[in-house]
Amino acid sequence: FPVIVSQDCGHAETAGVIASYGAAVAHIRQPDLSEVPVPPEHRKFQGYYKISRHYRWALGQVFGAFRYRAAIVVEDDLEVAPDFFEYFQAVLPLLRRDPSLWCASAWNDNGKEGLVDAGRAELLYRTDFFPGLGWLLLAELWEELEPKWPAAFWDDWMRRPEQRRGRSCVRPEVSRTVTFGRKGVSHGQFFDQYLKFIKLNDRFVPFTKLDLSYLGKERYERAFVAQVYSAPEVRLEELQADPGRDPGPVRLQYRGRDSFKALAKALGLMDDLKSGVPRAGYRGVVSFVCRGRRVFL
């Protein structure tokens, strides 16, 4: 895996650390370090504009100057799991042959300890939510996105229907990245409540030796719908009172945005929606673990 480090600042100490890796990495520098013109009401969001500018330039270099056909995007505040590259190597062929997939991510937004089945680290899912935080895209997708790349807030822009176009992303049961970036342009938004509790997978899963054909759209949807709607429906109070004797999956039904947010908050899930899509959700359903049993919200 060739490593390209794109630097978006004139910080000499950072450049020195990158240079210390010698020929092991390609060091590129974003040439435009000027302030980005922003609307007066967005002055406090200047950092988000600079990040979006850097993404556009760096991905343009990866796919244009270097002419790679796929790339894994990793921010500088991420730690990766032992099977991080193995995972992406295994899912790359899925993206190439399945037009209903547009990316793969190492991240589970609801990947806190206790909300995932750490013993099933090989499990992968389709999600309608763009997770980011260590993600794989093809050159063909960049060719589609680059002409309309946004001035700021690129990740939420990716989550809009006109970009997603009904496509899904692959994500793991147990995250293959964790972030230690409490400080940054987001000022630690979500960090203390969610992000610092994300469980990083600690065992190697040989994904390239596994059959991942179950992630194909038609096969996945048949199995997913059957699994979700064969699970008995329970109320929140029943789930919370459950002593854990019955390990079978259950279904918790929400009825609208406010209902979802209330249930998600009560269960320790991330409760925000982007363009109407819940984090880690597929067809409006969020899969997680509660008291050791699988729950479909």
What does this entry look like structurally?
The structure is a single chain. This protein is of the alpha/beta class and 297 residues long. It folds into two domains: 4-209, Spore Coat Polysaccharide Biosynthesis Protein SpsA, Chain A, CATH 3.90.550; 227-296, Roll (2,3-Dihydroxybiphenyl 1,2-Dioxygenase, domain 1). Helix content is 30%, strand content 19%. It contains nine helices and 15 strands. The protein has a five-stranded mixed beta sheet. Strands 10-11-15-14 form a four-stranded mixed beta sheet. The mean pLDDT is 95.
List keywords for this structure.
297 residues; alpha/beta; Spore Coat Polysaccharide Biosynthesis Protein SpsA, Chain A; 2 domains; 5-stranded mixed beta sheet; 4-stranded mixed beta sheet; 15 strands; globular; membrane; alpha-1,3-mannosylglycoprotein 2-beta-N-acetylglucosaminyltransferase activity; manganese; transmembrane; Nucleotide-diphossugar_trans
- Identify the CATH architecture of the largest domain: Alpha-Beta Complex
CATH fold-level topology of the largest domain: Spore Coat Polysaccharide Biosynthesis Protein SpsA, Chain A
Number of helices: 9
Return the string of H and E elements. Answer: EHEHEEHEEEHHHEEHEHEHEEEE
Strand percentage lies at 15-25%
Number of strands: 15
Runs in which pLDDT lies below 50 for 5 or more consecutive residues are none
Kindly provide the name of the CATH class of the largest domain: Alpha Beta
| Terminus-to-terminus distance | 38 Å
The radius of gyration computed from the alpha-carbon positions, rounded to a whole number of angstroms, is 20 Å
Main beta sheet:
5 strands, mixed
The helix content is 25-40%
What is the typical, i.e. mean, pLDDT?
95
Helix/strand/pairing category: alpha/beta
CATH superfamily of the largest domain: Spore Coat Polysaccharide Biosynthesis Protein SpsA, Chain A
Q: How many independent structural domains?
A: 2
Major beta sheet, strand line-up = 3-7-5-8-6
What is the global morphology? globular
